[in-house]
Amino acid sequence: MGGSGSKSRGFWPFAGSGTGPDAAGGGHEQSLARLRGARSATPFVFTRRSSLYYDEDGDLAHEFYEETIVTKNGRKRAKLKRIQKNLIPQGIVKLDHPRIHVDFPVVLCEV
Question: Is the model's pLDDT at 40 over the cut of 50?
Fold first, then answer.
């Protein structure tokens, strides 16, 4: 899905550096207790930004190509040209099944 972790501090409640007031004493236990209690943030992601585009005709795809005829030395040849103009991004898409956010600090499976 192409997502990456959150880069800025303060927007996502699970992101932490491990230094500062949370790291003193019981760092992880205290931060997990704080997450469960005070904030109502969920570790699940329900929407994502789509990588699909609409073209002028309303078709939906990742890439669009146009067939052009090129004449070279008296021979006609078909060539595909990629269309990059007049494309509208699909936008935000609701996921069928919720995903866990990449910054969620709990180990789900340990091998």
Answer: yes
